[in-house]
Amino acid sequence: MPAGRLLELSVLPVFYKLSGRRVLIAGNSRAAVWKVELLAATGAQVDVYAVKPDARILALAAQAGNVRVFERHWSTNDFAQAVLAVAEAEDEREALALQKAAASAGAHLNIIDKPQWSTFLFGSIVERSPLVIGISTDGGAPVLGQSIRARIETLLPDGLRRWASAARAWRPKVAALGLDIHARRKIWEKFTRLALAEPERAPADHDLASLVQGAGAEPAATAQTGMVMLVGAGPGDPELLTLRAVRALQSADAVLFDDLVSQQVLDFARRESDKISVGKRGFKPSCTQEDICELMIALAREGKYVVRLKGGDPMVFGRANEEIAALEAAGIPVSVVPGVTAASAAAASLGLSLTERNLARRLQFVTAHARGGSIPNDLNWKALADPLATTIVYMGVRTLPEFCARLVREGLPPDMPAVMVERASHPDERSLAGTLATLPGIVAKAGVKGPALTIIGPAALDRSALKHIS
Ligand code: SAH
């Protein structure tokens, strides 16, 4: 086993500068046409050998000044001066002949769709040139590679190419400032944060000016205030994160998260970031709202980019207002990334429209948990007992019997449908269906532990009956 941290590296990703160098392509298939296009885009001199060249190859040759077509079979001499060769081989014999010809010219060889006979492979590419990402499964699972590519594509806004090329243009200017390595690194860290935070915007000269401003001075003089983003972590399933949430997580210096946030969501955070639990089982035995605000302010004052990750949507029963007010009072920039609230996730898994025409004219979210743990005493029961409403009760497992009984007393029929959804969007999600009269008993028997909410109203009817899992 080779020494070092990597146990095995089946292929080495390298990025070949091909501009002006000669590459040879022997073949005529769709895959070959694509390789001609790809290699021509690098600025290489692309020489194609095909007895009857495909019309698309001829078209490329006509368009691009660096593609030449030779209407004949390849020969060993054609490999001279080529740094790379890409070819089709009918069988192993032809592959061996190609290998010999490539080796004699010192060229690396890719045999299309035959990784076992190739000395180099093409990966899937995410192109934000000059930012280029290559993905390989060592020929093992190209389709997996493509779908990973699709995921990365969605994570990287197209505008990043402009920032990557601005960095390339600015690099000599930053070098000319004569700063030490730490100061230069700081500049590039600030640049990176800006590029990832505002990728859609074109970088401008004033960005460079503000990046280098004060660089190299004493740290105290240049101390930068960080910022805080309140980010919705969604109901649990990481697939339900927004792209903006993922981007925020991937550029965070510190991530403060609640008990409700799932590990799979946390896995999206930048590897080097500090991940700090501020839930009930958090970094302090009883982590109060004030502690959380103080910690966020302290981290931001160190210049950190802080992600405050909250279950569901931060603006729904998330005490976001207190955090925003504290940060604003401390002069720290704060912004919010919305998330999928638990009610939306529960409705989606039950296939339940919360605003069924003629059944539910109103949709209301209510908490059944006041400071002391009992039902808040200022709820508007008249509104909650509206027979044409869908009511979603958050934080209401313990008070469910009392809540349902009260709704009946306020005038809702005891057979009004009610369904509790526990751990919506998690693999162990459960739903318990009943009515205002029966649900409390069903829930008590089932022993609900995880976060759960209750959907009450005529709209909770049909689908919930179908999906009864207990
Ligand atoms: N901001 C969150 C709500 C926080 S209050 C959101 O938008 O979803 C906490 C309550 O949310 C829990 O008591 C429970 O009622 C509900 N909840 C959170 N995650 C849930 C989930 N995965 N399934 C069901 N209910 C959930």
List keywords for this structure.
alpha/beta, five-stranded parallel beta sheet, elongated, disordered C terminus, binds S-adenosyl-L-homocysteine
Average of per-residue pLDDT values: 91
Cofactors and ligands: S-adenosyl-L-homocysteine
Helix content: 25-40%
Helix tally equals 17
Our Rg estimate from Cα atoms comes to: 30 Å
Low-pLDDT stretches are 464-470
Strand order of the largest sheet: 3-2-1-4-5
Multimeric state of these chains? single chain
Give the number of DSSP strands. 17
Q: How would you characterize this protein structure?
A:
The chain is an alpha/beta fold and 470 residues long. It is built from 17 helices and 17 strands. Strands 3-2-1-4-5 form a 5-stranded parallel beta sheet, with helices on both faces. It has a 5-stranded parallel beta sheet with strand order 10-9-11-8-12, with helices on both faces. It has a 5-stranded mixed beta sheet with strand order 13-14-17-15-16, sandwiched between helices. Strand 2, helix 2 and strand 3 form a beta-alpha-beta unit. Helix 6 crosses helix 7 and helix 11 packs across helix 12. It starts with 21 loop residues before the first strand and ends with a helix. The C terminus is likely disordered. Bound molecules: S-adenosyl-L-homocysteine. The site of S-adenosyl-L-homocysteine has 22 residues, from helix 13 and strand 17.
